[in-house]
Amino acid sequence: MADLDFQRQALAHLDALYNFAMYLTKRPPDADDLVQETYLRAFRFSHRFQPGTHLRAWLFQILRNTFLTFYRVREREAPVAEDGVPEWDVPMFHHAPDDDGTTMEVHTDLERAMRRLPEEFRTVLLLAEVEGLPLEEVARVMACPVGTVKSRIFRAKERLRGLLSDYEKR
Amino acid sequence: MSERFDDSSDEVLGRRLAGELHRYAAPARLRVTIVEAASPAPRRPAWLAPLLTAAATAMLLALVVLPVLPRIVPSDPAQRYVRAVVSEHARTLMWGARHGEILPSALPWLTQESGISLPQVFVGDDRLTFVTAEPVYLERSRGVAIHYRDVDGHILTYIALPAPGLTVPDPERVQIGRWRPALVRDNGFAAWVWKQGDVGCFLVSDMVSVDDVERFKEYFTRVRSTTEPVPAY
């Protein structure tokens, strides 16, 4: 298990990880579980972390991998295209109804639009634009080339703009 | 302040995401939960595991070795015989006789099984009631045991078995009529010990007090005078 210093450094990113988990799972209880599992894994495998590298990115990577392993329903995923982006509006979770009492509250159209993005698009925007991670780190988190990250960011924004435009017209 | 979407560039949208997208803060309890979950469970003292292992190993070895360890037995043959007959008497008190045969009809069977023939045998009177008789195996010899009960409920066990090595201990000898048996006490019981030829004879009872010994002498006389054990083969 990790030493106290490592735990302290890792827990400094708790809010960022929780925010990321909320946008991935859309449910506070799932986000809680996901973040907790992420930290336990990080502490357990802290010896694999290379000091000097980006701890924040490493934690995001663990969180996303955990999410993909335990929370995502692979069989319900759309076929992934060449750029790694699934088809539009594919339901992503078994237990992620949009409007039951446990789902997260939607504050703005921007948030609502984000929620409708496929996970790959949501993740790339959250990491690159919201968390401000360098593209290389985002590529590392998503286990794909930097070029793919750029392509996803472009397409994600394109799709986000389309959604926001739809909300504006209503 | 939101900018219009039709003229928003990638850069503007990126700024909106960074600036306007709601950020969720982790609940305070989550940090506590994580810290608690990451804390190692209270460890047992380092010496406890080896100690328990050693104790368990020793116990296991003791269980394995115990049956083959040499028993602590008295070196005196008389004491050894007395201990054996007292154990047999105690077993009878606790569990009863192995067989419920009744003399004299059982004598042929008893002689065959015990190797002791009883041309004469005390079968009870107004003070002692015959209970049962059975073959026994004590000190590597077959023998016969006869159980009686007196009017007060005391159980007496008479045992006769070949005992060529048995010497009646002189210091404990007591003169009773024309006989001089030895009164040996062991483990809360008293036993009259005497020999008839090569047959060792014992009369065991829990009558150990002074008054009881007087009565025990009477019982010895009754049994001794009317019982004649001889090796059958």
Structure characterization notes:
- The complex is a heterodimer of chains A (170) and B (233).
- Chain A is built from 8 helices and no strands.
- Chain A is mostly helical.
- Chain A has a single domain, classed as Butyryl-CoA Dehydrogenase, subunit A, domain 3 (Up-down Bundle).
- Chain A is globular, with a radius of gyration of 16 Å.
- Chain B is α+β, with helices and mostly antiparallel strands.
- Chain B has helices spanning 10-20, 28-38, 48-65, 77-95, 107-114, 210-226, and strands at residues 116-120, 128-138, 141-150, 155-162, 182-186, 189-196, 199-205, 228-231.
- In chain B, the strands form 2 sheets. In chain B, strands 2-3-4-7-6-5 form a 6-stranded antiparallel beta sheet, sandwiched between helices.
- In chain B, a hairpin with a 2-residue loop joins strand 5 and strand 6.
- Chain B starts with 9 loop residues before the first helix and ends with a strand.
- The chains are: A mainly alpha (170), B alpha+beta (233).
- The interface between A and B is medium-sized, with 37 and 26 residues.
